[in-house]
Amino acid sequence: MIKVGLVSLGCAKNLIDSEIMIGHLQQAGMVMTPEPDLADVLIVNTCSFIDMAKKESVGAVHDAVDGRAGSKKRARQKIIVAGCLSQRFSTELPGLMPEVDAFIGLDQITQVAPIIEKLVGTKEHEQENLVTKQPQYIPDYDTPRFRLTPQHMAYIKIAEGCNHPCSFCIIPRIRGRHRSRSQESIVKEARQLVAAGVKEINLISQDTTYFGMDKWTEERPKPRSGVDSSKGESLSTLIRELNKIEGDFWIRLLYTHPAHWSDDLIQAIAESPKVARYIDMPLQHISDHMLDLMKRETDGAYIRDLIKRIRAGIPGIAIRTTFIVGFPGETEADFNELLQFIEDTKFERAGVFNYSREEGTRAAKMEDQLHHMTRKARWNEAMRAIQRSVESFNTTLVGRKMRVLVEEPGVARSEMDAPDIDTTVFVNKKLPVGSFAEVTVKEWRGYDLVAA
After folding, report:
1. pLDDT at position 208
2. 302 touches 223 (CB < 8 A)
3. Is 84 annotated as a binding residue?
4. Could you give the domains of the chain?
């Protein structure tokens, strides 16, 4: 019986890849172990979105290699490096990490069991690089999968890859072109999850708003022309179908791109009570100069108008966004415009990235790269602006009743809070974990709330 250990790094999309690998390993009769010393094979599922993620992934691989070298029990252990780091640096890593036994990419996650069987059956160290250059894989509703999330919440990957030309981002080169699942497949998976007791379904992909549009036969609409869902499947049609599933649960939209929002999508959310009054929409900047350099396919006027339409069309909506500061060529005027936008718009939830210069992107080759101290100073100032905005919003919540999903004893999340990234609601009473409850906000502490 082969024992396998797995280290999963990175975002929720990567987590699903780990869940799929575990599902296939268990189907093949292999046993998962949390103890590295007991594992015949150790998989490190890596991330390489930004420099910090790369360093964490490389460190995890080195820890695995060093652990094997320093342990007699692990002397014959095989090490597999999977995920985005393998996919991004498929030609460089084998020479840089000769101790690793195999490198696999996105297309190999369903083949992990036979790959392991072959490695374990090989006594000598013979490194294999199995990564394919243009990944094509996308999961289905019946794909073997072992969920690593709590019983009451789950992620559904509705699409894979990305078609956007953002100059700072390497994801399209790692994950490939956008490819949507069928709406029928997603709805079937959602039904299975709700039947299993899931109370929150988080829809994820690189760009959830582009769902279905890659299958349309007509020319892709321009950002400002809106999206006509009559052309085929879209996020709007998917939301309406998911809302029909019987049961008490939330549907949460993550990773939406502003270019593909439409009045139809706003209406679909408004008329679907099971969709959480929360959207995650990374804007990255508001300055036209920056949005053009970033190749974001939107401009400041479009973004401001879209936010107004979303707030008007979906009462009580909480908007979460992220920004990048310190991008090449960002002037003081660009940054001040962003600060004023944060102040004026009063986002309920937000975060800031300090620009990371990623090799292989257009932005990495740009002139006017900002000094790291300038980037850090702007990040600190932008974070202070966001903190003021969130704390001001939290002040308005004191005394209000809200529905929460209990995560663990004394800890919950509201409809306005996505897993792992947003506000925590601390609850001063015993409530069943994995259940919905009505609480009253008593006070706030920084980003978090205290309720009873």
Report:
1. 97
2. yes
3. yes
4. 3-129 (3.40.50.12160), 153-396 (3.80.30.20), 401-451 (2.40.50.140)
